[in-house]
Amino acid sequence: MNKQLIESETSVVVVGASLAGLMTGIALANAGLNVTIVERAGAERRSGAGLQVNNGERDISTTAKYLRKITSGGSSSVEAWSSIEARLRREAQTNPQIDLRFNTRIQAVHQNDEAAWVITDKGEKFSGDMLIGADGYRSTVRRHVAPDHPDATFAGYLIWVAMVDEQNIPKQYRPGPNPGLAMPNGNGDFLLGFVVAGADGSCTVGQRRLGWAWYDNTQNDLLRQLGCVKGNVVQHSLTGADIPTETLANLSKKAKQRWSQPWLAAIEHSIQTRNLVATPIVEYVPEVLVQGRIALVGDAAHVPNPLTASGFNASLEDAATLTDCFIKENDVTEALLQYQSRRLKQVRQIVQSGQSFSRSFGR
């Protein structure tokens, strides 16, 4: 990307260093802004599921193409979340205009006519000409932008998610080269299976990773009993160590009745090692994306059903559009209003497109 420098010494604070936050920070830094990214989690690597990353054929702007090059390498495939995050983190950490801070949990969000800022749980203040909320579906920044509509809502089901090293799958079950996305028939259940490169980037059979995502609408009572869901609001996911043994035993029994190889072997290995996560699914249809000098991107702005396979690509478009609007306007409030004008209708449609599945499957 040819850096299109902004003449003013504009600064921005990005809350959240997941994919949307990193992409937004990188794009704005390459447009000449001074960027501080604050992330509540530590710097240790996190895991995640697979993401559908398209090849950017519809990307028009230089900014979007630049972000696509970093995240996908120009290919159209399912990518491991961790692989995309690693590329973006390297890019952010080597950019002198980005200050990336982990273990920084925000407690309050404020703004006036001249600036926007956050206060952390340690009393630190991070201020900028604008503030971007990229802090996920339980966004704290969203509560400032949309106080009348602050929470994403539980869709009525969860997804069991895991990633398994292919070497843990019996050789006779390992997929051949270029297996693509699998959607096996599970007698009414729904599963997505995919193969991605190994942690070292290897695509050699036996060195890759198998990911699976099992949609399950039978665990809602468990989620409420364990405090994962309160009312209609998701509080947290359920990690392997906290999943009741009886639940895992029932899941294994059900898997043997539902799924074919290699997905059965991958699921059973995940259950045996407790290397899986139960993620309650949420949805959020935004009414606004901007309030003054503060804007939302990614899951803080909109949360579509995972089946739409649009979450990552929508986040990339958020980051590119916001940056392009600022390059064009060179005024914070005008740029953010232009961003909202260009993105709000589109992201609402993306979320709404997946709601019919949730209404039928989740309830």
TrEMBL record:
The keyword Transmembrane is assigned to this record: yes
Keyword Zinc attached: no
Protein name as it appears in the record: 2-polyprenyl-6-methoxyphenol hydroxylase-like FAD-dependent oxidoreductase
SUPFAM superfamilies attached to this UniProt entry: FAD-linked reductases, C-terminal domain (SSF54373), FAD/NAD(P)-binding domain (SSF51905)
Transmembrane segments: 12-33
Origin: domain of life: Bacteria
Span of domain 2,6-dihydroxypyridine 3-monooxygenase substrate binding: 154-258
Source organism of the structure: Spirosoma utsteinense
Residue intervals of the FAD-binding domain: 9-52, 82-146, 280-352
Keywords for the protein's UniProt record, in alphabetical order: Membrane, Monooxygenase, Oxidoreductase, Transmembrane, Transmembrane helix
